[in-house]
Amino acid sequence: MKTFAELGFPGRLIAVEGLDGSGKSTQLRLLQRWLEQQGLKIFFSEWNSSELVKAATSKGKKRHLLTPTTFSLIHATDFADRYERQLVPLLRAGYLVLCDRYIFTAFGRDTVRGCPAEWVRGIYSFAAMPDLIFFFNAPLEVPLHRILDGRAELKYFEAGLDLQLSTDPNDSFRIFQGRILEQYLAMSSEFGFMVIDSDRPV
After folding, report:
1. DSSP strand E in 11-149: where?
2. What CATH number is given to the structural domain containing 148?
3. Number of structural domains found in the chain
4. What is the pLDDT of residues 39-77, one digit of tens each?
5. Quick count: other Cβ atoms within 10 Å of Cβ 10?
6. Does a structural domain hold residue 5?
């Protein structure tokens, strides 16, 4: 798979990946502000934000209707919509696109939820590789504490409660996110992640 630069796009795409609470969103927003101050044309895109399927995803999550397969397909639809209608046109126009999560989120989460790895990757085979990929790596307890410092409890799917790994949300989070972390670490060398130690102050 080629990067956008290798495909001849004038713009560039930077993606950040990491566990929930790893600090990636905070750092990407800081990077966005800094780049805008340099006078660059910036576009920020985040996972699961397409207006086309956002309402359906929200409804499915609230009612706990999403199976691993439907979860995977609805996120793929979301990504494909944003890719075709936002990312590619803006990269052709020379923008620097900052993505809070890219296809690697699906590679990790969907596989942990039980979807075949080759099947998941096949769904996203239309997507070019980012020009730079940062992976925010931290011990499991760090993102867990950061999340709970910001709100009273973990979200159902964030904690992997749909997988019935544990009845305790915190324990379920550790198991679920720990498995995702293993996927990320395996992908790190394969896709050339730039690994950031996110167990540090902002």
Report:
1. 12-18, 42-46, 96-100, 132-137
2. 3.40.50.300
3. 1
4. 999 999 999 888 888 788 888 777 877 889 998 999 999
5. 11
6. no
